[in-house]
Each structure stands twice: as structure tokens, then as C-alpha cells.
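Holo model, calcium ion. Inputs:
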Amino acid sequence: MTFTLDNTNGGTVSGGVAIRPMFTFTRQGDLAVRDFTNAIDSLPISCVWRFDPPEGFTCPDCAEQGHIGVGDLGLVAFPTSGSRSQFDWQSACQAGSPLEIAPGNVLLHNAGQTMWDFASTPIPADFFEPGSLPFDGVVVLQSDPVVDHPDTCVGRTLGMTDTIIEVKEPAMLPIDGATDTVPIELVALSLVSVAPITVTYGTATEPWDVRVDLSDIAVPPGTLSVTRTHPNGGTFIATLPVQPMFTFTKVGEEGGVEVEADSNDLSGLEGVLTTDSATDWQHDPGHFLPDCTSDMDVDLQDLEVFTMHFSSGGGKTAGGPEFDFVPTDFSVDSDGDGLTDGEEALLATNPINADSDGDGLSDGDEVDLGSDPLDAGSGLPAAGPGALAALAILLILVSRRRLSMGKLGTVTYYR
Ligand SMILES: [Ca+2]
Ligand SMILES: [Ca+2]
Ligand SMILES: [Ca+2]
Ligand SMILES: [Ca+2]
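Output:
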């Protein structure tokens, strides 16, 4: 048997095993017995294996690269002819070894301290309208999830993702202590103000909404310096140039008054965001979203980051942006329609609208009933025996939902 280690916790195995079986034939009725023994020299073996320690195993030898202790070898073998995509490399040793962080898109959600402070670069007088005074306040921002990111599929939603950072080259981290620096780029940003800002004109004031996207003005790539401190993670620091496009909209104005601003219009809006300290990260290759062009799964989130605090340097006194990112969680059901954000990403339904097509049936109910959650003409049954059956199922669903609401105070969806 030849074991090959091509991952910290697994690899391939090939070889053969000698076998000498004893066959015993017993005739029914008179119990006559005949034994037969023959040698079959070797059964060929070719499969992949992984280290699969028992529950409670504490892994004393993790520090020794590639070491497998006698008795610790829980061999889980899969035929090599099958798909390796079903292979779960995680183990109790947490040895999902990130020898390489693949290039791709890191999907992030702004939560926490997210704002833009105009103290150091005030918006000048007369910018909003003639007579408007300079604005040097703080705009507190929240997520406005992106849709139609060109790297995925038109019409697909990405859960609560409002920010996408592209890792442009693989980061190679062969051993603990290794560091690699790779280019990164902010490729999507979609934030809106939590409340309107107040624009002043002498003694009068007006409320204006603010949204922040990326400008078309190109910026140089940023850098991500990753250090591996453990087989499945470590720390990182990053710099990230950002070139925002602000859109200000006067609240309640008939027809709408809207002004845009990026560095073509106002100087000082561009900036370089930096992580203010080394941040923990963990490799988690378990996040998959569909790639419509090839019908194959691609990993859009190889780099799992716990939290990511960026500021333009020094916090509020320096002005500029402060962003707090967390990874997009596709396992939650943000709108309570019975479908997780991940399922809605696959269906292209809206993860923050329980009834994407507005036909009165929730996205989850439409999936269960077999109607189209993206077609308002497909939903409530029209007529006929099939429609009666669908209506019966719908009534059961609705009554179950009512029961769960009364009992638990929350809406629970039954499958
Ligand atoms: Ca949902
Ligand atoms: Ca929905
Ligand atoms: Ca619907
Ligand atoms: Ca529908």
C-alpha cells in the first residue's frame, strides 16, 4: 500500500492487498459440507483517503506536519473514479490546509461601524443647490445588497452581499508562518444612508438621502498580506483603494433632485482604506454559488474573514470612510419566506423580499407549490382539479404558518 499525502489531512492510496478466502458450501437437507480454499494474490486498491479521527480526539501531533499516529488513522476511502467534490477535507484537527487561497470574489456584508465622515473633505457651498452651505458631517451607512454582479449571473442575487473584494492572484501558504502578498480590488460597493443628511441653506434645512457606489474612475489594486499561523488560518492586513460615487437625492421632492459626486466633481473623495490591525481569517472552502456560464460550481468565497475593519487612517478625526465587514451568511433567511439567502441566490429571487413577484404568494410557498416565484402570473391557482389540489396545499401551508405564529411568536416554515 502506498499512501500519498497531498493535503494536510488526506491524499491518495494505491497498491494491493493479498486475500486468501475460505468458502464453505453446505447442502440443504443433509448438511453435507465442502470447504474450498484458493488464493487470490492481490486485490488492486486505488482510492483517496482522509484522516478522520474519532470524536473527542485532541490531536497531540498536529504540530508535526503530515504525522499520523498509530491508531489515529481513521481511513475514509472513496473511489477515485467518483467526484472529489463530495470530499470533505475538514477534520477534527481543523487541518483543512490552505496551501493556496484561490483567486476569487470575497462576498461581504457591512455590519457595525460603517460611515463616511466629510470633516476633512467637506462638500463645498452651492454643491447641492445654489445657496447650500458646506456639508462636513458624518453619514452613517447601511447595506443595500448588490444584484447582477457580472462575475456571477445576471439576475442572481448574492444574499446580503453589499461589498465584493476580488482576490486577483492565488496566495501560496505552504507552511505555518508563511506569508504571501497578493493584489486585491474593490469590485462592488452598495451602501445607503441610514437616515437622510441635513443640508443647510441659511436658516432653512432640507433632508437628502445618500447612496455610495463605486465610481467608474479606475484605481490601482490594493494589497492583501496573508500570514498562515495555523493549518487552517492566520492573520492578514490589507490596503484597499476606494473611489466612491456619491448620489444625493432630495427627500420628498416631486420629480426628484439628484446630484452625483466622485473625484471628477470634488477632490479628496478618493482614498486608501487600510485594516487598522492584523485581522484573523480562516479558510472555509464551503461557500459555493453557481456559475451560470459553465453549470459548474465555483468557489466565490475561499477566504473566510471573521471581521474586517477598514478606515482611511486614524478613525473619525482623520475623516473619510470606516467600514466593518463580515462575510455574507447564505444560511440565513433574511426575509423569512422559508428560503435561505443561498437558495434565493440559486433561484434569483429577492433575499430581502418575501414575495419577489408581488402575487401574494411567498417565494417559499411558490417553490413548494411548483409555481414560478418570479412570475406574478404563476401563483394562485386558476381553475381545474390540479388547481384545487394546489389550493388545498396552500391552505394547509397557511394554517400551519398561523399555528406556528401563535405558538412560538415567530414564523416557521414547514417542509
Ligand atoms: Ca428568504
Ligand atoms: Ca425572498
Ligand atoms: Ca410570489
Ligand atoms: Ca408567482
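The pocket of calcium ion (ligand 4) is lined by residues 357, 359, 361, 366, 371-373, 375-376, 378-379 (CB under 6 Å). Residues 2-86 form one domain.
Archived with the compound record.
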